[in-house]
Amino acid sequence: MLPEFDAAATGAAVGDTRQVAISYPENHGSKLLAGKTAQFTLTVKKIEAQSLPEVDESFCRAYGVEEGGIEALRAEVRASMEREMNSVIRGRVRNQVMDALYRNNPLEVPRTLVEDATQQMQLDAGRRAGARDVSQLPARDQFVEAARQRVALGMIMGEIVRSQSLTLDRGRVQARLDDLVASFPDPEETRRSYLSNPDAMRQIESAVLEDQAIDAIVERATVTEQPSTFRELTGFGQNEAT
Predict the structure, then answer these.
(1) CATH number of the domain where residue 175 is located
(2) Per residue in 168-196, pLDDT tens?
(3) C-alpha torsion sign, points 5, 52, 64, 83
(4) Residue 132: domain span
(5) Domain check: are 86 and 37 in the same one?
(6) Cβ–Cβ contacts within 10 Å for residue 214, how many?
């Protein structure tokens, strides 16, 4: 809504009528309105306001908490927030480590691997955008540098795994799987679906081994901690605030 409408509607009651003049700039997108002033008449038909529901047993049941009431709901919300926060922190640390590894370890990477990675990224982007054929794929050039970085980091991480004699921690694989399925309506059914999908499990195992390599790097790095709130980390509620 235009700010002039907001100002005119402020304080109005149902049935009130207000006049609003809107002056449009010379560079307005519509030639019919550019440089002109339009007069609007606003009539308030209905006033609505948002209200928060009471947090009671019915509220808890509506969100799937059948037993334990408000305390169980709070525990579930807290656990969900902790999972999200830990995921964000893990992602930020990973990005910082990866950026530093790529920046400080320049490599000549095989052209064929870069080509393959570029094509895969191009196809993935096209699939997300709903492309139906090759002509609708996004331009290849925009993926080349990211593909080169992906290949280089894969080689670097592989060397770290070898040099540090890292082996896959099955306990961490189980913990990662637990985190993944926890947010689904039927965690056990989702778990069975993952366990029966070798490709999905390989992705989880690869991510865990990468985490182990990053942990090995962080243990040897100088770490500066930066206190942050949940809102700052996740952006929770920022849309509502604006």
Answers:
(1) 1.10.3120.10
(2) 999 999 999 998 898 788 899 999 999 99
(3) positive
(4) 80-222
(5) no
(6) 20
